[in-house]
Design goal:
Layout lengths: L1 E10 L2 E7 L3 E6 L6 H13 L19 E8 L4 E8 L6 E4 L2 E2 L12 E4 L5 H4 L2 H15 L3 H27 L9 H38 L7 E6 L12 H14 L1 H7 L10 E6 L2 E2 L6 H21 L5 E5 L7 H11 L4 E6 L12 E6 L3 E3 L1
Helix pairs in contact: 4-5, 4-7, 5-6, 5-8
């Protein structure tokens, strides 16, 4: 798949940005702070409805504006479509396909598939569990868009349940347990949506890791014989039975919720569920976090992203590959391996502060980005 054209209105630094693209490689070159990443961030947003840089939509909107717009003509093997997104922080975003409004913004998921590799990806190795959960969930919704609804339903139930637990905690201290009686309804919903999400994550890991392991072996070459591994860590602890069955996880979650009822009421927060899970990345017998070097952290992050690229490609169509200011961070061997992969993508976007940061073998369209939101080819 590839993007034929992109238009941004009041997105980040751009009052207006319009550009046509060809298949193959497009490199945006310009000094830091001039808006290169703003362009590829918008392309990535079309794939996951989230930014690889920030957790909320507010920073995406140009200062002083209420909303921003992303428009793109997208071509795939079976259709050409015009996607339009209106992003309004604090309110429901709106989406249209070929000028027809969609009932839900998430209905555009699956039309654009993209893999973004960026400096923020070091958080996959060094960061908190949230970065690894997000990596899995963003890949999940690209492969199976309906799971975006499952994730949204889970987040909604979790928010409501936490509010109820907080109220119940206060009520218990005041000598009444009336609110506790309503928790069972939310328990069931939390376990149902949570069970489906956990099972999908574990199934995804089983498919992803052989590809990521292959990529790590290629990146490392003969430097190491240690194998990259990923182990799903449930908030249920060691008693959890790791399964790809959502029914199994629903049952396990309900049991864990019941056993931790007192703790949850005391603390006023939900203590079990996919929002508290993690993925332990290991290199051989050692945990990657806190053990591997800075360079090896780049290798692991790169391997996970390229594994995701390969997995999406196996689904039937090459995703768009976005490399946001990463070549300058990689040594010659890692740069060469990444460059080889870029050449297999139907379309790739690269950002770099200076032209020399882009490997010479990745000859393609170069677009200079200058301050003020202007682009020159």
């Amino acid at each position: 798949m590839w993007i034929q054209s992109l238009s941004l209105t009041d997105i980040r630094s751009y009052e207006q940005f319009d550009c046509l693209f060809d298949q193959g490689i497009t490199a945006f070159v310009g000094r830091n702070g001039h808006g290169k990443t703003n362009i590829v961030e918008a392309i990535g947003y079309l794939a996951t409805l989230s930014s690889h840089r920030v957790a909320s939509d507010l920073p995406l909107i140009r200062q002083g504006c209420e909303r921003g717009f992303i428009r793109a003509h997208v071509s795939s093997s079976d259709r050409d479509v015009l996607l339009e997104l209106a992003i309004t922080p604090g309110k429901a975003n709106k989406a249209r396909i070929n000028q027809s409004p969609l009932p839900r913004t998430r209905d555009i998921l699956g039309i654009v598939r993209a893999v973004v590799f960026a400096p923020e990806d070091l958080e996959l190795v060094k960061g908190d569990p949230g970065a690894r959960r997000r990596f899995l969930d963003d890949l999940l919704v690209q492969r199976t868009p309906r799971l975006a609804g499952t994730r949204a339903d889970y987040d909604r139930v979790l928010k409501q349940r936490n509010a109820l637990l907080k109220s119940a905690s206060i009520a218990r201290k005041a000598g009444t347990d009336r609110i506790v009686q309503t928790l069972e309804v939310w328990d069931e919903q939390l376990a149902t949506h949570g069970g489906e999400l956990i099972a999908a994550r574990i199934s995804l890991l089983k498919e992803l890791m052989p590809l990521a392991q292959h990529q790590y072996a290629m990146v490392s070459g003969s430097e190491t014989d240690m194998v990259l591994d990923a182990i799903y860590q449930s908030s249920l602890g060691e008693q959890a039975v790791i399964s790809t069955s959502r029914e199994d996880w629903t049952t396990q979650l309900l049991s864990a919720i019941d056993s931790r009822r007192k703790d949850e009421l005391d603390r006023g927060v939900t203590l079990v569920g996919p929002h508290r899970d993690d993925v332990a990345l290991n290199l051989g017998d050692f945990p990657a976090k806190g053990y591997v070097s800075h360079g090896e952290s780049w290798s692991l992050a790169l391997s996970l992203r390229l594994g995701a690229f390969d997995l999406l490609t196996e689904d039937g169509e090459s995703p768009i590959l976005i490399l946001d200011d990463v070549f300058a961070e990689l040594d010659a061997h890692r740069r060469a391996h990444l460059a080889t992969h870029v050449g297999t993508a139907q379309q790739a976007f690269i950002t770099a502060a200076v032209a020399d940061d882009v490997p010479h073998e990745l000859a393609g369209t170069r677009i200079e980005i200058v301050k003020g939101g202007l682009a020159h080819g």
